[in-house]
Amino acid sequence: MVKFSAYSLMISSFTPFHSIILKTPRRFSRNIPFNHSTKSRVASYYQNVELHTEDMMGASRYLPPLFSVAPMMEWTDNHYRTLARLISKHAWLYTEMLAAETIVYQQGNLDKFLGYSPEQHPVVLQIGGSKLENLAKATELANAYNYDEINFNCGCPSPKVAGHGCFGVRLMLDPKFVGEAMSVIAANTNVPVSVKCRIGVDDHDSYNELCDFIYKVSSLSPTRHFIIHSRKALLNGISPADNRRIPPLKYEFYYALLRDFPDLTFTINGGINSVVEANAALREGAHGVMVGRAAYHYPWQTLGHVDTAIYGAPSSGITRREILQRYQEYGDSVLGKDGNNRPNIREVAKPLLNLFYSEPGNGLWKRKADSAFMHCKTMKSFFEETLVAIPDSVLDAPIAGGVPSGREDLFANVHDFLPPQYQAREEEALYA
């Protein structure tokens, strides 16, 4: 007997994913009783973001990106973003990086790559590429899908992306091109544009070199928002996983950018694993915080606290049972829609496998899921077979229960270690 039977939902029904070309982006309610610190954060954010009038209209539909979920290849797909939005109303979500060439060469199949449900707003499209013509065309084609921002990848260290002079983090070595690329992207969209980058590449890792990159890109384009992964990247063959572990974090570089570029907006990324640590960064003046793997591996423990702890909103009180019932509606609406049985049960259910992390029954739930992937044809049957492993007390516990863990002192004394102030040499910086 499925555990959803006779259960009364307190939320509206899910909009099926086949309604994917968005004409009127959804607006979240702004009537939230913020505490003083949250009010200050929101006001401070909008004071720091310089947007064109039409861009501000788009951005102001939602609360600012004080907390965002990082773009992660093969992870932050439609399925994960659907689950993430069911848990948090206000976290900003990023797509996986999508190559501009893929968008251009798949014009007859764009729904598969660019489509998403209106429930996902605010959502940012991240694109990558190294050819201006394709970046322009890809941005133009993406306009029909009404993303809330277009982000350009200058931070991925994967050899498949950054190798062979391609794109990703290697583009940090060519800031003049990045400025041109951002101008092209901005010229083909009416939403804000941003850059995600590292603090350096290989031996090009000084604070002044990072500042030269920021100065050139922002001077040569309308880019006013940078997401800074506070590690440099090593392109000597180490894996992307090692690139997230071996280069040391230098949060002092990020906070120095706030000092030296007061007209720009910066989001901090790297090594932040909970809302406690995100709040620690915000208290020290960060404009916004981006979290990656913690939001994927521990979605309930991380995203479940974002709306209350970061944005000051009252708890929705939603339970995992309610979330899974809505996800069942979504999953059964998309199974097999791409043909050849894709997406299949395993692909659609993949983000759910972390939903019961550290809870009673989690191990048995995963074993049952592995078995169910072999023969279940619907999400309904998948849940009927697997959720018997999870106690009702877990399924019915409201969101954001308990106190989130994390290092409150992660950014302690960071301002004591800032590098010397940057002095831009305009002619050399812009035309070198």
Structural summary, described in words:
- The protein has 432 residues and is α/β, with parallel strands linked by helices.
- The chain has 2 domains: 63-314, TIM Barrel (Alpha-Beta Barrel); 320-396.
- The protein is built from 21 helices and 8 strands.
- The chain has helices at 36-48, 53-59, 78-87, 100-105, 110-114, 132-142, 159-162, 175-187, 207-220, 240-243, 251-260, 275-283, 293-297, 299-302, 306-310, 320-334, 345-349, 362-372, 379-386, 392-395, 426-431; strands at residues 67-69, 92-99, 123-128, 149-154, 193-198, 225-229, 265-269, 288-291.
- It has an 8-stranded parallel barrel with strand order 1-2-3-4-5-6-7-8, surrounded by 5 helices.
- The protein starts with 35 loop residues before the first helix and ends with a helix.
- The model is unreliable at 5-36 and 49-58 (pLDDT under 50).
- One of its GO terms (molecular function) is tRNA binding.
Question: How is the topology of this model organized?
Answer:
Blueprint: H1 36-48, H2 53-59, E1 67-69, H3 78-87, E2 92-99, H4 100-105, H5 110-114, E3 123-128, H6 132-142, E4 149-154, H7 159-162, H8 175-187, E5 193-198, H9 207-220, E6 225-229, H10 240-243, H11 251-260, E7 265-269, H12 275-283, E8 288-291, H13 293-297, H14 299-302, H15 306-310, H16 320-334, H17 345-349, H18 362-372, H19 379-386, H20 392-395, H21 426-431
Parallel strand pairs: 1-2, 1-8, 2-3, 3-4, 4-5, 5-6, 6-7, 7-8
The level of helicity is 25-40%
Strand content: 5-15%
In CATH terms, the superfamily of the largest domain is: Aldolase class I
| Global shape | globular
Low-confidence stretches: 5-36, 49-58
Question: What sequence of helices (H) and strands (E) makes up the elements?
Answer: HHEHEHHEHEHHEHEHHEHEHHHHHHHHH
- Global structural class: alpha/beta
**Count of the domains:** 2
Q: Mean pLDDT, rounded to whole units?
A: 86
Terminal CA distance:
68 Å
Radius of gyration: 21 Å
CATH fold name of the largest domain: TIM Barrel
How many strands in all?
Answer: 8
